[in-house]
Design goal:
- The protein is α+β, with helices and mostly antiparallel strands.
- The protein has eight helices and nine strands.
- It has a four-stranded antiparallel β-sheet. It has a three-stranded antiparallel β-sheet with strand order 7-8-9, with helices on one face.
Length: about 300
């Protein structure tokens, strides 16, 4: 039943130079994130203290971005850094930093009594969008590399693919629909009050709804002696068995329960046994999980 092969992840070990311990692709991703955060800051500082000429601000953005990608990319290309970042749950905090631009626009608008418009607002919005996208790329790349490191010598007992159970799919679809409704209503309110930063915020809520819906799709799961691997073709996460407290396999769901409290069990790993691929018998999955966790009574 053992199977040492694991599904490849995007940007996995194939991009790393094992001899020198470097990973040029991760360095590039880290450089892009640094550029997305730093370049708008420098451009806004130039706009506030010097010129708001669009051409000048473009070259400030471009020059700062190139310097950040090159400098940070060179420093961050060490594979050990990627593994350390991927081992921390705080890597996702990188997503919060770009929203500082949006918060600054809202605060400035409240202080002035009117929405901030013009080049400064445009640069800030670029910072939010570019920073959010690049932060997700940074977090996913780091988590993938951490999973590679943990599973390098691990034995795989069983692996399978399956979507979320029907119960979870219903909950998440309702939550996604609620977020989408909030986005539409909030966007309409922002138009009515003519407050642009609020409009930009609610435009960002809609993609969050899509992200929730995406969690119901098929996931790859592997039971290994190093921990439980969960992911898809783009990203994967491995957690040690100490992070879980029990498991259960029924006709409705394959459940691996996380330790501690979880609202509606959203932190648990829950898959649909009816649509399991690669493993014909869910009890084979139960037997593998039983090697590391007690079965819930």
């Amino acid at each position: 039943m053992a199977d040492d092969s694991l599904p490849d992840s995007a940007g996995g070990r194939g991009n790393a130079d094992d001899a020198s311990g470097t990973d040029g692709f991760f360095g590039f991703v880290a450089g892009l994130y640094a550029a997305a955060v730093a370049a708008p800051t420098v451009a806004i500082a130039v706009a506030l203290g010097g010129t708001t000429d669009p051409g000048a601000l473009f070259f400030v953005l471009l020059g700062t971005a190139v310097a950040a990608v090159g400098g940070v990319g060179l420093l961050a290309r060490h594979r050990s850094l990627a593994v350390r970042l991927g081992s921390s749950r705080w890597i996702w905090a990188a997503m919060a930093l770009p929203f500082g631009y949006l918060g600054g626009l809202v605060a400035a608008g409240v202080a002035r009594g009117a929405a901030v418009t013009g080049p400064i607002a445009g640069v800030a919005v670029v910072g939010v969008v570019a920073g959010t996208i690049s932060s997700v790329g940074l977090a996913v790349a780091a988590r993938n590399r951490y999973a590679d490191a943990v599973l390098a010598d691990a034995e795989t007992l069983v692996r399978f693919s399956a979507p979320a159970p029907e119960r979870d799919a219903r909950l998440l679809k309702r939550a996604a629909a609620g977020l989408l409704a909030v986005s539409v209503v909030g966007f309409g309110v922002s138009l009515a009050v003519e407050f642009a930063p609020l409009r930009w915020f609610f435009q960002l809520v809609a993609p969050m709804a899509s992200g929730l819906f995406g969690t119901t799709t098929e996931r790859r799961v592997a039971v290994t002696d190093a921990g439980l691997l969960v992911g898809n073709a783009v990203q994967r996460t491995v957690r040690p068995w100490s992070a879980f407290e029990s498991y259960d396999v029924t006709d409705e769901a394959i459940v691996v329960r996380r330790s501690g409290w979880s609202a509606w069990g959203l932190l648990d790993v829950r898959r649909n046994p009816v649509e399991v691929e690669e493993v014909a018998d869910p009890e084979e999955i139960a037997a593998a999980l039983g090697e590391y966790l007690p079965r819930e009574q």
